[in-house]
């Protein structure tokens, strides 16, 4: 792993320490990632966390923070895709009263909120060219000026960033600045995909079953042997997040004390019908595959919840309004899935 401290040594902390940080697993690939996290937590440099969507990059960032000397100071997460250029510097660095039309009061900004602790920039690949320039300037000396302010401020923060794409490829495509990448990747760790973590899927499934049973006041259910086989055979394109959502859904909705998943309803496991995609561009094929998945997922979800959109929103982790829009987008209605009153 490029730029990562060596992973051949044993991690200094036991598995219970990481379990308390929701990092659970025993596969070689996962243990190697923990070893790297353990080492980079001990030094105070910028960190780049790589990994597919759902692999636990924010959990890794929190582990670096809470295992470091900064553990008693704030951990401030920021979604880079939600930072518009027009508000970028104000959001990050704050502003003084009267700095612009709507600045009715002073705002310290996210960097000031993270003082002494960690600023976590998620989805850093979503930063616009202008945002990358702003970030580069800040990373050079950790000094900044609030919008409308006259004096420079100095930030005592550690910056951790994450990405689910290959930033080197974006550099080649002139979509990401090489000098920014150099600044960000002083240290790095890659969170492995769940399909590369051997039997960690069962360990994680049991962990989620116990955690959610405690959170929702439900009895702990056990996995049927057929379900265990399904879990082990599935490729988990959504990684740990997909498994987590599935276990929560089944714990809340499965009858009895045994979870037995109908393989025909495990829609995420069904392969895309490649034959249907022949002759299409990659972009068109991808859009169609996503649309097919969304419609199938929604149909299954609404069937399980009997058309209860509020419950479906909680299970799926989506805002109710957003879920409603997605349902309408695919021409579905919650009424169609409600049990007959006959």
Protein model, in words:
By secondary structure, the chain is α/β, with parallel strands linked by helices. It has 3 domains: 15-192, Rossmann fold, CATH 3.40.50; 208-266, Helicase, Ruva Protein, domain 3 (Orthogonal Bundle); 271-342, Arc Repressor Mutant, subunit A (Orthogonal Bundle), CATH 1.10.10. 43% of the residues lie in helices and 9% in strands. The strands form 3 sheets. A 5-stranded parallel sheet has the order 2-3-6-1-7. Strands 4-5 form a two-stranded antiparallel sheet. Helix 6 packs across helix 8 (178-184) and helix 12 crosses helix 13. The longest helix is centred in the C-terminal third of the chain and has 24 residues, at 282-305. The N and C termini lie far apart (61 Å). The model is unreliable at 1-11 and 266-278 (pLDDT under 50).
Features:
single chain; alpha/beta; Rossmann fold; Helicase, Ruva Protein, domain 3; two-stranded antiparallel ribbon
Q: According to CATH, what is the topology of the largest domain?
A: Rossmann fold
**Gyration radius, in Å:** 23 Å
Helix and strand run: HHEHEHHEHEEEHHEHEHHEHHH
CATH architecture of the largest domain: 3-Layer(aba) Sandwich
Individual helix count:
14
Q: Using the coordinates above, name the CATH class of the largest domain.
A: Alpha Beta
Q: What's the helical proportion of residues? A: 40-55%
* Strand neighbour order, sheet with most strands: 2-3-6-1-7
Major sheet summary line: 5 strands, parallel
Low-confidence stretches: 1-11, 266-278
Number of domains: 3
Question: For this entry, what is the oligomeric state of its chains?
Answer: single chain
Distance between the termini: 61 Å
At the fourth CATH level, what is the homologous superfamily of the largest domain? P-loop containing nucleotide triphosphate hydrolases
According to DSSP, the number of beta strands is 9
Q: Return the average pLDDT rounded to an integer.
A: 83
Shape: globular
């Amino acid at each position: 792993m490029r730029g990562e401290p060596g992973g051949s040594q044993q991690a200094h902390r036991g598995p219970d320490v990481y379990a308390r940080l929701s990092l659970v697993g025993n596969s070689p690939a996962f243990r190697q990632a923990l070893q790297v996290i353990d080492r980079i937590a001990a030094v105070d440099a910028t960190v780049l966390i790589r990994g597919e969507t759902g692999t636990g990059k924010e959990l890794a960032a929190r582990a670096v923070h809470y295992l470091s000397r900064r553990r008693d100071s704030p951990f401030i997460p920021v979604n880079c895709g939600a930072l518009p250029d027009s508000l970028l510097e104000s959001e990050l660095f704050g502003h003084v009263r009267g700095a612009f039309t709507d600045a009715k009061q002073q705002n310290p900004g996210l960097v000031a909120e993270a003082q002494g602790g960690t600023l976590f920039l998620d989805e850093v690949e979503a930063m616009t060219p202008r945002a990358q320039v702003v970030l580069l300037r800040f990373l050079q000396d950790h000094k900044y000026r609030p919008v409308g302010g006259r004096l420079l401020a100095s930030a005592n923060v550690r910056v951790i960033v994450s990405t689910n794409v290959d930033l080197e490829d974006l550099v080649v495509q002139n979509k990401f600045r090489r000098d920014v990448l150099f600044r960000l990747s002083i240290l790095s760790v890659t969170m492995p995909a769940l399909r590369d973590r051997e039997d960690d899927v069962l360990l994680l499934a049991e962990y989620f079953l116990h955690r959610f049973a405690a959170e929702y006041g439900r009895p702990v259910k056990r996995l049927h042997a057929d379900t265990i086989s399904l879990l082990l055979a599935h490729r988990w394109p959504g990684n740990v997040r997909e498994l987590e959502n599935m276990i929560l859904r089944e714990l809340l909705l499965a009858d009895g004390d045994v979870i037995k998943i109908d393989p025909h309803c495990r829609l995420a496991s069904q392969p895309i019908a490649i034959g249907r995609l022949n002759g299409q561009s990659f972009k068109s094929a991808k859009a169609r595959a996503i649309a097919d998945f969304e419609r199938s997922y929604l149909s299954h979800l609404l069937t399980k919840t009997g058309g209860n959109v509020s419950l479906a929103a909680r299970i799926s982790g989506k805002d109710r309004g957003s879920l409603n829009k997605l349902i309408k987008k695919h021409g579905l209605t919650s009424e169609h899935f409600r049990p007959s009153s006959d």
